[in-house]
Amino acid sequence: xxxxxxxxxxxxxxxxxxxxxxxxxxxxxxxxxxxxxxxxxxxxxxxxxxxxxxxxxxxxxxxxxxxxxxxxxxxxxxxxxxxxxxxxxxxxxxxxxxxxxxxxxxxxxxxxxxxxxxxxxxxxxxxxxxxxxxxxxxxxxxxxxxxxxxxxxxxxxxxxxxxxxxxxxxxxxxxxxxxxxxxxxxxxxxxxxxxxxxxxxxxxxxxxxxxxxxxxxxxxxxxxxxxxxxxxxxxxxxxxxxxxxxxxxxxxxxxxxxxxxxxxxxxxxxxxxxxxxxxxxxxxxxxxxxxxxxxxxxxxxxxxxxxxxxxxxxxxxxxxxxxxxxxxxxxxxxxxxxxxxxxxxxxxxxxxxxxxxxxxxxxxx
Length: 365
Ligand SMILES: *Cc1c(COP(=O)(O)O)cnc(C)c1O
Known about the structure:
14 strands
């Protein structure tokens, strides 16, 4: 019986060749030709004017918030059903996260919930495109325009996700991506900040590089950071981008197999919306009964199939605790988990995994 992990990056292109070019040339730090090549190829792929590489997806979010001058006294509306980094960076920027519920069908932030949480202190909305699906960007853009709010898109889980024919990340004022090892394209650790606005991009570039003056050496004109990506990571990223379409096709195929083989079981697979293209970062399912989730996950684990629960709600964590309830987010978070979702999975693997799920429900009856 072989082990099936939750994720495994596909590094079958020019990754090692490009990394070796860095080693051979000595350009292993954050200067070198791959950094600019990765950034310009990435911005073309997404269809955005500017892209600035950073060391991970969390600092990308922090940088985005700081570049938009979000800080003490400001409120940022964010879903409670998200990865913790979306919320932590709001707090780290000195602002206050204000939580909203999610939609039952798409699992994305509820625009009506956002509308209800707008106050005179609201500065921005953080739209997190979760698990490869897109948020309702028509509704969120309209709300932000009407209320003069900034819109930040956390696209960490949505590389290859399209909404109304456009790649996510082009709808708001600024967007961020993550290239962690289990993200759709990876640089090991890494991230990107994108924007269509020149002045926002200039702020991002300045802040990620210690706020150094462009005219005077070792002169730093504001409090800033070292959030730069290395040339080695960018080399991996460029090779990954060359493979991006192939990776996305394979991941879609994996999701289609899951849908086919899970068809008549009491689980529901995350649905693709009509006006968007799911990138299937993860193949996520919900079980009908929340208390059966752990039994099913344990059963799969016994057979060496690794899974991950969907994110617990951030507003219940000690450092973010608020006394509110978000019923849709709770429903999804308690029932959902991710199945192995990597691009090199074969149909026999999916038949094996879904066969175990069939066995599990058979045994229970
Ligand atoms: C992965 C992820 C991040 C953080 O990215 P890192 O590269 O791990 O720092 C932020 N937001 C979401 C939604 C993520 O999934």
